[in-house]
Design a protein that fits this description.
The protein contains 6 helices and 4 strands. With 147 residues, the chain is α/β, with parallel strands linked by helices.
């Protein structure tokens, strides 16, 4: 996904994978709730790291499901509700949950995923950029392969 793409330009499955990457990067987990019952085959939504994908089902909508989840949560201050719906953000704030507009969340997500990971890097820089010519010659000489 390019940084310029918006969430409305990608499939629901791709959106879930991108949000999952973001949540994993920041060390969080979350839920994405879609209206309706979703596709018949939901296997594409399985095993997305950091994201549980839910469908509101028939007879209700996503906003109602989210409101119910916020009301039922025993630690709402730890929640962040992402929605551009004013009513839903107001309900989240009433329970002292964080409320973020979708556009602001998407901008944060894009910025985080575009940023290279430097802090907490697992791999040495040499592995990413390769050995210098001098280092290569030293190793070849060390193993007797410099001839």
């Amino acid at each position: 996904m390019g940084v310029a793409e918006g969430p409305e330009e990608i499939s629901d499955v791709r959106l879930c994978w991108v949000v999952g990457r973001y949540l994993k990067r920041i060390g969080e987990a979350g839920e994405i709730i879609f209206d309706g019952t979703g596709p018949r085959d939901k296997s594409d939504f399985d095993n997305i790291d950091g994201v549980e994908v839910l469908f509101a089902g028939l007879g209700t909508d996503t906003d109602t499901v989210i409101e119910d989840k916020v009301k039922a949560n025993t630690a709402p201050r730890r929640l962040t509700v992402v929605s551009s719906d004013r009513r839903l953000r107001k309900a989240a704030r009433a329970r002292r949950a964080n409320a973020v507009k979708s556009e602001a969340f998407w901008s944060e997500l894009q910025g985080e995923l575009a940023r290279k990971r430097v802090a907490g890097r697992q791999e040495p820089m040499g592995k990413e950029h390769g050995l210098s010519e001098g280092e290569t010659e030293q190793w070849l000489e060390f193993f007797g392969l410099d001839e």
